[in-house]
């Protein structure tokens, strides 16, 4: 079992207790069934042909099928049942108390992480900065020369007094070219978006592992939990969401986490580190689910409002209230992979040309 003891998880299964102060779990229960937590924070796979074999790494299996988040499965029979679902707590009525509760949850989650052999993936945004604030550890930022993320990380490190801890992994075209098939094979995905998102994480983790660090702390989860996406802010008008409210749209975003975390965890492990995601601690998740819509997106359209207000206790305001580009764009990785695709003959007039390029590289 990863993420918690098998005995504690068995208790949670019996009580259908989806959140109990872990950062996610998956593995084999004492009765030999497989289990995965409600947010899918730990991936686990079973043979798709009904064989009893299972693994945390899909490459170990001939026909791997991910266990859905929140499910318990008998790997011999293939029978699966959803045991866990995320709670739907009452909406917090006092904004100040809600922010204080979130601050306390963040503090407890960060304090629960052992600092040994730990590095931090650092983009200069509020998510990774809050994580970085808790640890005397090196901060790794990845990007091409003149990229937004490298500049932002330098500025944030300066504001936080952590300039000496910052380690810039400046990329070259050959780095991206080499890593594209490695990331695709590690994640089992060839679509452009997944590879472009995972690639900066993979390269940061690779450098941290080379420098001797076994674990990489990441800021994953904050956008989903706290209303960080434009489509959530525009609910219900945005056609990408079904919900009629901002709070409902944020809940939809949380539902995308299992698929995203599977990709990120597999990429990071393939690079040689074990990911640590304090912002996905059960205590933080529980508090986030109770936030009202105006503490996710305020009346001026500022996203992640409650998280930014709580973050002021950990980082300077210039970091807490800074907007950030998505990692694939802020690092310029998406631009470079697109260039590599076109250079290899996959022109933009082709449908999904970057995905076709990635697929062509996997068999090399």
Shape verdict: globular
The CATH topology of the largest domain is Rossmann fold
Strand order of the largest sheet: 10-9-8-11-12
CATH architecture level-2 label of the largest domain: 3-Layer(aba) Sandwich
- Class inferred from helices and paired strands: alpha/beta
The arrangement of helices and strands along the chain is HEEEEEEEHEHEHEHHEHHHHEHHHHHHH
Query: How much strand content do the residues show?
Result: 5-15%
Q: Tell me the helix content.
A: 40-55%
Give the helix tally: 17
Number of strands: 12
Sheet bearing the most strands, described?
5 strands, parallel
Q: What is the CATH C-level name of the largest domain?
A: Alpha Beta
Overall average residue pLDDT:
94
What is the radius of gyration? 20 Å
Low-confidence stretches: none
Distance between the termini: 34 Å
Instruction: Tell me the count of domains.
Output: 2
- CATH homology superfamily name of the largest domain: HUPs
Domain Asparagine synthetase: 104-237, 250-344
Pfam families: Asn_synthase
GO molecular function: asparagine synthase (glutamine-hydrolyzing) activity; ATP binding
Protein name: Asparagine synthase-related protein
């Amino acid at each position: 079992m990863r993420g918690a003891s098998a005995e504690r998880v068995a208790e949670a299964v019996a009580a259908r207790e989806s959140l109990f102060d872990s950062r996610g779990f998956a593995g084999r229960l004492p009765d030999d069934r497989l289990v995965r937590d409600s947010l899918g924070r730990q991936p686990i796979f079973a043979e798709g042909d009904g064989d009893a074999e299972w693994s945390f790494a899909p490459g170990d299996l001939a026909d791997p099928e991910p266990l859905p988040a929140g499910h318990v499965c008998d790997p011999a029979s293939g029978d699966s049942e959803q045991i866990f679902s995320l709670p739907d707590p009452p909406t917090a009525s006092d904004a100040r108390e809600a922010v204080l509760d979130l601050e306390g949850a963040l503090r407890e989650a960060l304090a629960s992480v052992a600092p040994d052999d730990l590095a931090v993936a650092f983009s200069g945004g509020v998510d990774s900065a809050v994580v970085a604030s808790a640890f005397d550890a090196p901060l790794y930022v990845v990007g091409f020369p003149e990229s937004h993320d490298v500049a932002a990380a330098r500025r944030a490190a300066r504001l936080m007094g952590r300039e000496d801890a910052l380690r810039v992994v400046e990329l070259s075209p050959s780095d991206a070219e080499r890593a594209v098939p490695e990331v695709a094979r590690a994640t089992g995905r060839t679509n452009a978006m997944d590879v472009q998102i995972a690639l900066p994480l993979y390269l940061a983790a690779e450098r941290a592992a080379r420098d001797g660090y076994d674990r990489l702390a990441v800021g994953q989860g904050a956008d989903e939990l706290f209303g960080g996406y434009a489509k959530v802010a525009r609910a219900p008008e945005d056609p990408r969401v079904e919900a009629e409210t901002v709070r409902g749209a944020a809940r939809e975003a949380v539902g995308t986490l299992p698929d995203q975390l599977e990709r990120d965890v597999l990429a990071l492990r393939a690079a040689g580190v074990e990911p640590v995601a304090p912002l996905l601690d059960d205590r933080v998740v529980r508090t986030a689910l109770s936030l009202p819509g105006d503490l996710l997106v305020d009346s001026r359209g500022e996203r992640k409002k409650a998280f930014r207000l709580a973050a002021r206790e950990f980082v300077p305001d210039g970091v807490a209230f800074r907007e950030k580009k998505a990692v694939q764009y802020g690092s310029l990785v998406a631009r470079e992979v697109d260039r590599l695709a076109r250079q290899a003959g996959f022109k933009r007039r082709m449908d999904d040309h970057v995905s076709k390029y990635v697929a062509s590289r996997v068999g090399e």
